[in-house]
TrEMBL record:
One Pfam family cited in the UniProt record for this chain: Aminotran_3
GO MF terms, alphabetically ordered: adenosylmethionine-8-amino-7-oxononanoate transaminase activity; beta-alanine:pyruvate transaminase activity; pyridoxal phosphate binding
The keyword Transit peptide belongs to this UniProt entry's keyword annotation: no
Family statement: Belongs to the class-III pyridoxal-phosphate-dependent aminotransferase family.
Annotated protein name in UniProt: Aspartate aminotransferase family protein
Cofactor: pyridoxal 5'-phosphate
Top-level EC class: transferase
GO biological process: biotin biosynthetic process
Keywords: Aminotransferase, Pyridoxal phosphate, Transferase
EC number annotated for this UniProt entry: 2.6.1.18
Lineage, highest ranks first: Bacteria, Pseudomonadati, Pseudomonadota, Gammaproteobacteria, Vibrionales
Highest taxon in the source lineage: Bacteria
Organism: Vibrio mediterranei
CDD domains, per database record: OAT_like
Annotated InterPro entries: Aminotrans_3, Aminotrans_3_PPA_site, PyrdxlP-dep_Trfase, PyrdxlP-dep_Trfase_major, PyrdxlP-dep_Trfase_small
Length: 448
């Protein structure tokens, strides 16, 4: 029987069964890039090379890899209690974990609903928003508003409010009653900006146009990423998020922040809501919640929403929604251990401490061949490259594969390189990462 051998390497012919997500399967399986172990800032490839992690796995391993505190907590918990239901039953860990999360959440967002992924967190948030509006007698508020180039996971709710065309175009009509705000990227007017750009032609005001079109009485919620990540790092201009909050408050519309990427210290505060001093009504999270060790997501909900929906003397189920693994004991154990690491190692604020050094490294790439724009905030960077005519995404993918060959893992979306390293990164790692990327950009022989 063919399979994975004891060293974790693949034997020939055993790759056909796995239909890989968000991957050109035939291309990958013709020349696999396999990772077999990880420690600290580095993966180890199948051919035993050290690969500097420039992406925190997939935006999730904020505390780096191989954290024994997490693996030991997981092993202990799975030995003691592998699974327990949370439908009309309970076990201690999700209650303890929710309390710990509420301590770092923005003030007033103290209620936590557990999911298994960012996609589930988004669909949960949208359903809570709709249910809440109905609960308070605003049942006509059914429209949802997302944003162009937004990414909110791959559930039908998430791709409906999302705005990345390839995630939407093959799946039919999706949810009805959805509108989209314009995205906030203008390379012509704010290219190579450092931190939040100044240029803003009034993007937030487009929400008023949608309100005028449909009337506020029909709009339930707006969902945005404070910093759009998966589309290639699009930053909000200064004051944009505050203005969105003002308009939503004026019209009784809930504001949802998708912080699956920005949560847990990625931009220098526990959450972007705190970093930008804007309080949404709901926050969606996942990824860094358990440092990527066990799949889990969490939705933070305002006390106002929870108290409106959960009557203290009710004997009935208030929200007919949930997942078999909501509050899974092993995932909760991983999450508690992760929060301990974040707190003990001051990782919530480390991105702020390194942001200036990171920014200088990012913008050192200005002027290199085909670099069209550079964007950064906290420990996030977007490097936009000029595309190859007729081959969208080809240039960045070639950079991606060459970087892997030379010893660094980056992420690409279209012709944009997105970087989001573990928060334990040191200045020497930053130097090494950008020296390698610069070398590739200067010397790569593109297949035009």
């Amino acid at each position: 029987m063919q399979g994975i051998n004891k060293q974790g390497t693949t034997s020939s012919g055993n790759m056909d069964a796995f239909w890989m997500p968000f991957t050109a399967n035939s291309q990958f399986k013709s020349a696999p890039r396999m990772l077999v172990s990880a420690e600290g800032m580095y993966y180890t490839s199948e051919d035993k090379r050290k690969i500097l992690d420039g992406t925190a796995g997939l935006w999730c391993c904020n505390a780096g890899h191989g954290r024994h505190e997490i693996s030991e907590a997981v092993a202990s918990q799975i030995h003691n209690l592998d699974f327990a239901p949370t439908f009309q039953m309970g076990h201690p860990l999700p209650f303890e974990f929710a309390e710990s999360l509420s301590e770092i959440a923005p003030s007033g967002l103290n209620r936590v609903f557990f999911t298994n992924s960012g996609s589930e967190s988004v669909d949960t948030a949208l359903k809570i928003a709709l249910a809440y509006q109905r609960c308070i007698g605003q049942g006509t508020r059914t429209r949802l508003i997302g944003r162009e180039r937004g990414y909110h996971g791959v559930g039908f709710g998430g791709i409906s409010v999302g705005g990345i065309v390839n995630n939407r175009k093959t799946f039919g009509s999706l949810l009805t009653g959805v509108d989209h705000l314009p995205h906030t990227l203008s390379i012509e007017n704010s290219g190579f900006s450092k931190g939040l750009p100044d240029y803003d032609p009034g993007w937030a005001e487009s929400l008023n146009n949608i309100v005028t079109l449909h009337d506020a009485s029909n709009i339930a919620a707006v969902i945005v990423e404070p910093i759009a990540g998966s589309t290639g790092v699009i930053l909000p201009p200064k004051g944009y998020l505050k203005r969105l909050r003002e308009i939503c408050t004026q019209h009784g519309i809930l504001l949802i922040f998708d912080e699956v990427i920005t949560g847990f210290g990625r931009i220098g505060s526990p959450f972007a809501a705190q970093e930008f001093d804007v309080k949404p009504d709901i926050i969606t999270t996942a990824k860094g919640l358990t440092n990527g060790a066990i799949p889990m997501g969490a939705v933070f909900v305002s006390d106002e929403i929870y108290q409106a929906m959960v009557a203290p003397d009710s004997q009935a189920i208030e929200l007919f929604h949930g997942y078999t693994y909501s509050g899974h004991p092993v995932a909760a154990a991983a999450g508690l251990a992760t929060l301990d690491i974040y707190r003990n190692e001051n990782l919530y604020t480390r991105a702020a401490e390194l942001s200036d050094y990171w920014e200088q490294a990012v913008h050192s790439l200005k002027g290199l061949p085909h670099v069209k724009d550079l964007r950064n905030y906290g420990l996030i960077a977007g490097i936009e490259l000029e595309g190859i005519a007729g081959k969208p995404g080809s240039r960045a993918f070639q950079v991606f594969t060459k970087c892997f060959e030379k010893g660094a893992l980056i992420r690409v979306t279209g012709d944009i390189i997105a970087l989001s390293p573990p928060l334990i990164i040191e200045k020497q790692h930053i130097d090494d990462l950008f020296t390698l990327i610069a070398d590739v950009l200067q010397n790569i022989d593109y297949k035009e």
